[in-house]
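To illustrate this point, what follows is a protein record of this kind.

___
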Amino acid sequence: RDLIRQMAMELLRSAGYAVIPATNGQEALRAFHSHPGQKIDLLIADAKMPYMDGLELADAIAKEQPGLKVLFLSGHVDPAIFAPGRQIKALNFLQKPFNHAALSQKVRDLLKSHS
């Protein structure tokens, strides 16, 4: 998990994106709250994380920032984790393992989309 996070952060930073890293959902929520007024363009979260999973994290941030774009990463595909009734409107998913090109393309596509 650490290796994937580090690879993704390096790729995104090298592409010119500002990255706010976190090791789990609770830490990510604290990081979001420590940047008041700053809009998060894209949340990239592992679907399954300790303390607070990616879906719970996305729901919590989307309550404060409606329209949040989210990319979930996971090594497991369990449709039950993408249950209806969530705060986030569109679920975007990238299966692990993935390569630089797949992550780059997904991020570009999500940031270009208006939904």
